[in-house]
## 1
Amino acid sequence: MNEAQKQQFQLLTAKFEEWMKAKNFSPRTIDTYNRGVKQFIEWIEENTECTNILEITYSIVQQYQISIYSEGVLSQKPRNVRTLFEFSQTTDFDKDIENLVTSIDV
């Protein structure tokens, strides 16, 4: 994943945090979700060929869940990822990402 593609994921997490604040999530919840989303994005970088958020499919999310459960991690991580995708569906984030993807030479 190149630097421009990493910036796209950083944009996602920044907008996700803004959205959580606007929805009055507690600071502790925001911190927890940010950690979980960061770990998910790191897993995406290490284990998939995805180069932008629009390429993440349900199947990839399932693979991530299997991965964390096989590591014995039973935590909020699946909820964090689910909330991230709920956020992406309730905003114009898809349009923002499409514009960003087409404007970046990858």
Note: The chain has five helices and no strands.
## 2
Amino acid sequence: MSSESPISVEELDEIICGDSEFLRLLTDQFWAELEHRLPELRAAVSTFDGPAVANLAHTIAGSAGCVAAQRLRDKAKALEACGLARHSGEAARLLQNLEDEVQLVRAFLDNYQMT
């Protein structure tokens, strides 16, 4: 696992412009989106619905970009590509990688908001 931060702090700072209320709103929206999309993505991976996997992963990648979660975005894009190519053998592993990264992002953002 990389020791690199799960969030690009410089990019996040540019996004929020020092506005802690905007950061709170942005992260609340991000987590709400993930709470909705991750179960759908798990279901799509379990039945390997390639188009659904691609669509849901694409949505998660976009959400990750909004909070400067570059590694999460990259992992979601890899899962999106897997869905588009219909490579079912990789989907479960890529989903696990994505979910592991979600936990790192959550820990980072929870601590970042307290600073």
Note: The two ends are 25 Å apart (CA to CA).
## 3
Amino acid sequence: MEQRKVKYQLTKVFKDMDQSQVGINEVMYLEAKVNYTVLYANGQKFTSSRTLKNFEMMLNTNDFVRIHKSYMVNTSFICKLIYAEKGGFLKLRNGVKLGIARRRLSGIKEKLKSLNIT
């Protein structure tokens, strides 16, 4: 699966108290942590003072999907959708499994189908 190029750059992202930039196409997923967001990219964790809701409004919905109140995932890194008794999981290229909120499952299923991800 080829990664799509996205022109956004994230600023004010921190790792170990040092400010840096991360290309949005490098971000695998974002995780909400109270009033900040942890970005997982290139095998590292970065922190941003923006909330997940801010990222959701900023990012292209074709490239990122909100799967849970705590997670937003870059569709380029999704391997497959795994169904469970009460909802489901997304498996990412690095083997991480993230839970999908039950109320979001049908919308995510349709979104992944349109992107040819099963």
Note: The beta strands are 9-15, 18-23, 27-33, 36-41, 44-48, 64-68, 71-74, 78-84, 87-92, 97-100.
